[in-house]
Amino acid sequence: MVTQQILNLLFKVRILVRQPYSSDLSIMTAIQVIAEIERLPPQERELIFLRVHEIEEATIPDSFLQGMEEGKRGDLLDI
Which of 21, 32, 40, 77 is most buried by a 10 A CB count? Predict the structure, then answer.
């Protein structure tokens, strides 16, 4: 279960990424975000890391991931 503390942290990170120069919002630096994550219990830190990993994987093109899988299987063509 995602706690309110994690939701608040993710909201702050979203603010940092989407509106870094807004004077109306409280901005956190990366160091502050990391410090907040370090204060979380291990189970909640794991949820953060899993979500970040999902976000990073979403930015990798499917064609690249398919090529990586083909390479693991040895399905490569010599050019």
Answer: 40
Find out whether 17 and 33 touch, Cβ atoms under 8 Å.
no
- Does residue 68 have a pLDDT over 70? yes
Between CA 23 and CA 27 the distance in angstroms is: 9
The number of CA neighbours under 13 Å toward the Cβ of 52 is 13
With vertex at residue 22, the alpha carbon angle to CA 45 and CA 32, rounded to the nearest 5 degrees, is 30
DSSP-derived letter for residue 24 is T
Amino acid at 38: E
Whole-structure pTM value: 0.45
**Amino acid letter, 74:** G
CA-to-CA distance for 79 and 45, rounded, in angstroms? 45
